Amino acid sequence: MVILQTLVKKFGIWVAYLAVLLLLPQLFDSILAISIYNQMAIAIVFALSYNMLLGQGGMLSFGHAVYFGMGGFLGVHTLLMIENESVYFSVMWVPFIGGLFGLLCALFIGSFSTRKAGTVFAMISLGIGELIAASSLIFVDFFGGEAGISGDRTFGPTFFGVDFAQNIQIYYLAAIWTFIATIFMYLFTQTPAGRMANAVRDNPIRAEFIGYSARRVRFISFCAAGLFAGVAGGLFALNYEFITEENLNAATSGRVLLMAYIGGLGYFIGPIIGAVLLTLMNTLLSTYTDLWLLYLGILFLLTVMFLPRGFAGFIMMHQVAWLRGRLTSLIKPYLITGLPALVFLLGVVTLIELIHTEDETLSIWGLSLTPASVPTWIVLIAITGAAFYGIRRSLPQLREAWHAANKPDGEGN
Amino acid sequence: MLDVLIFATLNGLVTGLLLFMLASGLTLIFSMMGVLNFAHASFYMLGAYFAYSLSLYFGFWTGLIFAPLIVGVLGALVERYGLRRVHQAGHVAELVFTFGLAFLIEEAVQFFWGRDTKSYQSPDVLNFALFTLFGQEFSAYRGFMIAISVGIFIGLYYVLTRSRVGIIIQAAITHPNTVANLGHNVPLIFMGVFGVGTALAGVAGVIAGPVLTTFPGMATVLGSIVFVIVVIGGLGSLAGAFIASLLIGLLQSFAIASDVGMEDLLDLFGISFPYDHALADLWGLTLPQVAPILPFLLLVLVLIFRPTGLMGKREE
């Protein structure tokens, strides 16, 4: 019985993770849903690999898409080679090839870029990112210029009769790869190298004093991050069967930073949350509004300012209150502040959409508003302003409740 | 050949001075607060857009004066209500904040002004050829750009080294606590420097807008180059930033104007490759082709071999 309990405690979360990954297509199985799942799987691996750099190793990179893109480009080239029968293996190994190439690039670039952390590392990563992105337009043979390169995943030997022509088959393959990559990235955090990465992030001088080379520790994390970014790139190649310069430029590097940061740096689960959230915004929100990037930018800035540890950090903040059994005492203050906050949010979004729209009427939240009418504006601004006032008024109560819930036991008022 | 040389130099000078107008603010802000402001070029873009909107109603000259003011106030507000808050979380958080700000400003510009290129024009007064050399015209507007930038630098240099405010600023860079003890409001100085730095970027945007076109991507185009400059020049060094700006400006304009390539280099050594060689792209490279990546190549090389930059003293 005790053994069972420890087993559940140790592996339960992983079994649940795998089950969720494999059962998702049972929930929604439309073509759109499967394509979103595929993007999520790719984003999860990519964001987790980024977290190895910034979250675990303290290296802020503005060029992480290089390893993703390199893995992807070699992935598509591998597809082409399988098609030409220059090599003979199943396309399911493409992410592995991509990972190896990502690792190779990271070995080379990391050999000089990991000497310093902080601003110098960030600048080198930015420079290399721009360098590779610009070179990709010059070296047409490998990168295919602006059009990129494309392949076909239906060639090569099948895997027990599965030929990976359908998107759903690719999803199951991607799910397995994502699961494996997640396990390995988690295990990496448990190795001495992973532990030392945290130490070097927090205090490189002390780490050097106990005999570790900060540079070497950073180098190891950097290479591991390159490897998994390459795996994500290989998955991308397999899913889309084409890749362009856009997938290794600064915009992609920025997006993975956003994912990891919004999800929560430093927590292993954070980037997964961020990857899921951003993929949903990218695919679903973008069908409702073409301003979704503006909302993403606002969300990101608010996260950096008010939730520096991201969504995962926000959840983990409640650990103390939960352990003390006082989490329920927070529900009421949360509702009291949350309600005006929600109204404020909806009001601001409505105002933004109203400014933006060029149509005669704007249909939003089931209402239909006319941008030309002045009363609409006055009412909207009044509601939003009142909601803001409500937040301001209720915030001290929330703060008080928060302190009360986190107070150590046995301490008087 | 001579005409190419002269025009490449002049164009390089215009670009270099423009870059310095951005780099000077960026490096001043860095040496003061230790923040490498990723959004600096976004303020440059805002300058161009504000000036465009103002020029529609009041003409170019009103834009030239008021657009940088608006940008400067915006910059000061960003420092006061954004950056100062994030400051406690450390330099990485600050860098990430300015990165997010750059992202947001680009989206906001598209929200307010749209995605298309704006026809922001230089004033009619300056639409004549300043001089004609070897049959090529050098427009008066470019001359005006040189004059404005040089004027601002002289002013900036004078304020920083000769005036009382400048001396307090210089002291606050190296000894903020002592300056605070002497009764000066250091956070206010920081806010002011940030505002002036962004306003300078705004001026650059106003005068560059008509030449380099006003479109939502203009910050991205210039932003990383300005970063390259402050790093190559040495973080926090104004003189280094000046040299690096001119260097990058000239390097790019000469690379674009030249017509040499890898083949000429290989010919020197008597090596030649067949055109169907696997690395044919590499052997066929020309200098104009690689012009856009030269600054980044230089950046990576400098960071590897001399991380402090040309004139930098400050070790991380």
Summarize the helices and strands and which ones pair or pack.
The complex is a heterodimer of chains A (413) and B (316).
Chain A: H1 2-27, H2 31-56, H3 65-83, H4 94-113, H5 118-138, H6 140-143, E1 149-150, H7 167-190, H8 192-202, H9 204-209, H10 214-240, E2 242-243, H11 250-263, H12 270-288, H13 292-306, H14 310-316, H15 319-323, H16 331-356, E3 362-364, E4 367-369, H17 374-406
Antiparallel strand pairs in A: 1-2, 3-4
Helix pairs in contact in A: 1-7, 2-7, 2-10, 2-11, 2-12, 3-4, 3-10, 4-10, 7-8, 7-10, 8-10, 11-12, 11-14, 16-17
Chain B: H1 2-33, H2 40-58, H3 60-87, H4 91-113, E1 129-133, E2 136-139, H5 140-162, H6 164-174, H7 176-181, H8 186-212, H9 218-233, H10 238-257, H11 262-268, H12 280-283, H13 287-290, H14 294-305
Antiparallel strand pairs in B: 1-2
Helix pairs in contact in B: 1-5, 1-8, 1-9, 1-10, 2-3, 2-4, 2-8, 2-9, 3-4, 3-8, 5-6, 9-10, 9-14
Please provide a written account of the structure.
The complex is a heterodimer of chains A (413) and B (316). Chain A has 413 residues and is mostly helical. Chain A has 2 domains: 15-308, Orthogonal Bundle (ABC transporter involved in vitamin B12 uptake, BtuC), CATH 1.10.3470; 319-406. Chain A is built from 17 helices and 4 strands. In chain A, the strands form 2 sheets. A two-stranded antiparallel sheet of chain A has the order 1-2. In chain A, strands 3-4 form a two-stranded antiparallel ribbon. The two termini of chain A are 43 Å apart. Chain B is mostly helical. The interface between A and B is large, with 43 and 45 residues.
